[in-house]
Amino acid sequence: MKKPAFRRVVLKISGEALQGGGGSGIDFDVLESVAAQIKEVRSLGVELAVVVGGGNIFRGSTSTAHGIDRASADYMGMLATVINGLALQDALEKMGVYTRVQSAIEMHELAESYIRRRARRHLEKGRVVIFVAGTGNPYFTTDTTAALRAIEIGADVILKATKVDGVYSSDPVKTKRARKFDQLRYIDVLKKGLKVMDATAISLCMDNSLPIIVFNLNRYGNIKRVVLGEKIGTVVKG
């Protein structure tokens, strides 16, 4: 069998990806599919951590338009990521995959508190670690969380799972002439304002030479394909 291209990875999954075709909430068929794909990757011996968003349940940036204080809205969004993380943990453990949920906000009855050395030890023991509650601070996205945690635990790459098969020059749903990029430099993402990850996350990755691979989560098996080094999606590096 082909050897994995990476030893340790951080998989970033948006809340929107978990809602599937629904308007909100969790699509449990999608959740089961994601869990099965993560199990496949673990069977390759790859150490895998997951950062989940919460936009399928609550989006802080949208709620501020209705008068909710930005910091309060962001904390509410962090709690939404905890719901998604616990749902993913349940799906994984039903498949026999040992997991640990680590939260940036203390909630001992639900999850471990995030401790970098403990997270690394879990990964070394073959457990999947799910990071929830963002960075624990308002004004930071789960994209930034993914970049920060990946750097802290010494990951080789961030795998950003989305609803499209890479990064385009414009929205491919709205623009037929949208051009897909096979590879991009960090600085080009920032200059062009491309919707890969937010500027803080891209800057963190650039400063630490951490590559990002953007790919389509909706095609079953793509997580494993990326981990095995197949050329799918868009690679951001350099």
Q: Can you summarize this structure?
A:
The protein is α/β, with parallel strands linked by helices and 238 residues long. The protein has helices spanning 15-18, 28-43, 60-63, 70-94, 116-124, 142-153, 186-192, 199-207, 222-227; strands spanning 8-13, 47-52, 99-103, 112-113, 128-132, 157-162, 167-168, 180-181, 183-184, 212-216, 234-236.
Task: Identify the overall geometry.
Answer: globular
Q: What number of domains?
A: 1
Helices, by number, come to 9
Assembly status: single chain
Instruction: Provide the CATH superfamily.
Output: Acetylglutamate kinase-like
> Which CATH C-level class is it?
Alpha Beta
Please identify the structural class as seen in this structure: alpha/beta
By CATH, the topology is Carbamate kinase
Largest sheet: 9 strands, mixed
Low-confidence stretches: none
Radius of gyration: 17 Å
Rounded to the nearest angstrom, the distance between the terminal CA atoms is: 30 Å
Description:
The protein is of the alpha/beta class and 238 residues long. It has one domain (8-236): 3-Layer(aba) Sandwich (Carbamate kinase), CATH 3.40.1160.10. Helices cover 39% and strands 18% of the residues. It has 9 helices and 11 strands. It has a 9-stranded mixed β-sheet, sandwiched between helices. A two-stranded antiparallel ribbon has the order 7-8. Helix 2 (28-43) crosses helix 4, helix 6 (142-153) runs parallel beside helix 8 (199-207) and helix 7 packs antiparallel against helix 8. The radius of gyration is 17 Å and the shape is globular. The mean pLDDT is 93.
